[in-house]
């Protein structure tokens, strides 16, 4: 089983080496003539004005929380789906109850306009 | 042998991430280091032949909890740009607590009798988990959904009233 994960290791090693190799070869080969325009943050587009590190709206947090809830729902759904053929009707009903309880939460979020972007 | 090398590498990655969390001056960078540490923990699950837990670790901790932490940092005023000093007024108290916890964990590590099973790890953990969730542990499973519902509604109520 562990042998299968060797591919992930090899994949991450190659994925890491591609940008490192590319950037270091470019660094070795390129002539170094920095200029004021060359060192600008953007090649095209506008320079930003004002603070970039601002306080964000609380709405993002609600979205993230709802995402977490349904992320964890997926965690429960997955073993159920894998074992589905061995389970009977009872398990199907159980899963419907599980999802129905969570849908109540989604309906609540919807009804209270928590999903509205203000 | 290869597993041993992989374990040392993954453990070093996890510890490096954890040390980065503590040493980073900006809370935002700390959160990024925390993600690195989470990824390392998921690698340890893979080495323990618990692929489902490894997947859950990636999905929930790296995917969701890390996003929550980063959002929490971004929502807090001046949290992102300001570099926090290493020591504040409570450094003595915190230091004592950390030392006590460290000694306790060391003691447990050395004193506890760690049983080693000679049985092979189960081949198909996910299917067995699904059957257990639907059979023996069906009540905790449904209670979990109620918990999630309470968390969702509670979060909306807290976030909406200002």
Task: Give your account of this protein's structure.
The complex is a heterodimer of chains A (118) and B (162). Chain A is mainly α. Chain A has one domain: Methane Monooxygenase Hydroxylase, Chain G, domain 1 (Up-down Bundle), CATH 1.20.58.1610. Chain A contains three helices and no strands. Chain A has helices at residues 2-29, 59-82, 89-111. The longest helix of chain A has 28 residues, at 2-29. The relative contact order of chain A is 0.06. Chain B folds into two domains: 1-84, NADH-ubiquinone/plastoquinone oxidoreductase chain 6, subunit NuoJ (Four Helix Bundle (Hemerythrin (Met), subunit A), Up-down Bundle); 123-162. Chain B contains six helices and no strands. In chain B, helix 1 (2-23) runs antiparallel to helix 2 and helix 2 packs antiparallel against helix 3. The model of chain B has no long low-confidence stretch (mean pLDDT 87).
SSE order of chain B, one letter for each helix or strand: HHHHHH
Low-confidence stretches of chain B: none
Secondary structure tally, helices of chain B: 6
Strand content of chain A: under 5%
| CATH third-level topology of chain A | Methane Monooxygenase Hydroxylase, Chain G, domain 1
Q: What string, H for helix and E for strand, traces the elements of chain A in order?
A: HHH
Give the low-confidence spans of chain A.
none
CATH architecture of the largest domain in chain B: Up-down Bundle
Mean pLDDT of chain B: 87
Tell me, what is the CATH class of chain A?
A: Mainly Alpha
Radius of gyration of chain B: 20 Å
